[in-house]
Amino acid sequence: MTIVDCAVYEGGVRRPGELAVEDAFETLHGKGSFVWIGLLEPTEDEFDAVRREFDLHELAVEDAIKAHQRPKIEVYGDSLFVVLKTVRWNAERSEIDFGEILAFVGDEFLITVRHGATDLHEVRLALEQRPDLLRNGPGAALHAVVDRVVDEYEPVIEQLDTEIRDVEANVFSPVRTSQVERIYSLKREVLHLHAVIFPLLDPLAGLARGRHSLVEQEMWTYFRDIYDHLARMSAQVGSFRELLTNVLTANLTQVGIRQNEDVRKISAWAAIIAVPTLITGVYGMNFEHMPELTWRVGYPAALVVMGAICLGLYRYFHKVGWL
Q1: For 292, how many CA atoms within 13 A lie in the half-sphere containing its CB?
Q2: CA pseudo-torsion sign 114, 119, 125, 126
Q3: For burial by CB atoms within 10 Å, which of 53, 121, 269, 319 has the most?
Q4: Contact 22, 49 (CB under 8 A)
């Protein structure tokens, strides 16, 4: 287990010096003081000391260790268990990388367990510059973590918007190529992102409306701001789903039209080729008494007739748009 940081905050200020996890809870003095412990991908054995020190519920601990949970807030006795999904755009694979941050929130502690690339060190440093917020206890630290996670959704949504616009432009470009595979890939990423954002709306609404007493009233407005931001993102992701469905329909329609055009072209050329084939087939029957055989211009006349009919058919099919 990697202990990223362990600190005690009193009156909105971090107590100086290093602190062992086993001693963290015992060092708290008075209302407004709390400990914030940051962990990185702990195992069950490694997390056991933290579980015993803060009397964490075994089911929540199991979820925090294994991860792969949906976004949610659950109440376990006098503490909250918060699950947040993190996202980051992978430019090499052109898809989203997902991670998780799981938080245990109590009256005097915040324990964050990180799975993935999102770094909370900068979040902690920025919050330590706001003692006015830190005085509100673990709820203020939870707000800083949630705010960072939600902010990281924005560049991923912007990148998806760019990718979708590129696909849309390719679908309606003069050089028509099938975009079905790319559309399905983007739609899969959009659905995954929707599964990250949408389930978080209700838990955030609960934090913004004071549903949980562990969050001080002064922090409700800050959580409401995050909720509004997330609601806008959810609506935007929903529009992506609808837009991709329409683009996919347009692309499949164009594929069908191109197939029909190809069938018409093949049919037109087959009709043109059938004329000389028919005439030469008649001559190939080798009848003994055919006037054309004794006529000096018989063969040239036959060639001219075949050419004229083929040219006429070509001009007709070109006029009706088959060629």
Answers
A1: 14
A2: negative
A3: 53
A4: yes
Residue 86 · residue 99 · CB < 8 Å:
yes
Maximum Cα interatomic distance, the chain, rounded to a whole number of Å: 123
Judge whether 135 and 172 are in contact, CB under 8 Å.
no
Within 10 angstroms of residue 159's Cβ, the number of other Cβ atoms is: 16
The model's pLDDT over 85-135, given as tens digits with 9 standing for 90+, comes to 999 999 888 899 999 999 999 888 999 999 987 888 899 999 999 999 999
Length of the chain in terms of residues written: 323
The tokens for 36 are 């914030």
Measure the CA–CA gap between 234 and 205, rounded to whole angstroms.
Answer: 14
Give me the pLDDT at residue 257, please.
56
Whole-angstrom distance, CA of residue 241 vs CA of residue 245? 6
User: What is the side-by-side strand order in the sheet with 2-10?
Assistant: 13-14, 2-10, 34-40, 109-115, 95-105, 79-90, 72-76
CA distance 229 to 234: 9
The candidate with the shortest Cα–Cα distance to 161, out of 236, 87, 98, is 236
Two structure tokens written together for 10: 């009193």
With b for 16 or more beta-carbon neighbours within 10 A and e for fewer, the 85-104 pattern comes to bbbbbeeeeeebebbbbbbb
Instruction: Let me know the angle formed at the C-alpha of 68 by 67 and 74, rounded to the nearest 5 degrees.
Output: 70
Please indicate, yes or no, whether the overall pTM of this predicted structure exceeds 0.90: no
Q: What is the dihedral of CA 3, 5, 11, 12, to 10 degrees?
A: -140
Dihedrals phi, psi of 322, to nearest 5 degrees: -85, -20
3-state DSSP call for residue 68?
coil
* Structural domains present in the chain: 1-130 (3.30.460.20), 257-319 (1.20.58.340)
The rounded radius of gyration (Å) of the Cα atoms in the chain is: 35
Round to whole Å and give the CA distance between 262 and 28. 78
Task: Report the relative pairing of strands 109-115 and 34-40 from DSSP bridges.
Answer: parallel
Give the angle 199-205-207 at the CA atoms, nearest 5°.
Answer: 110
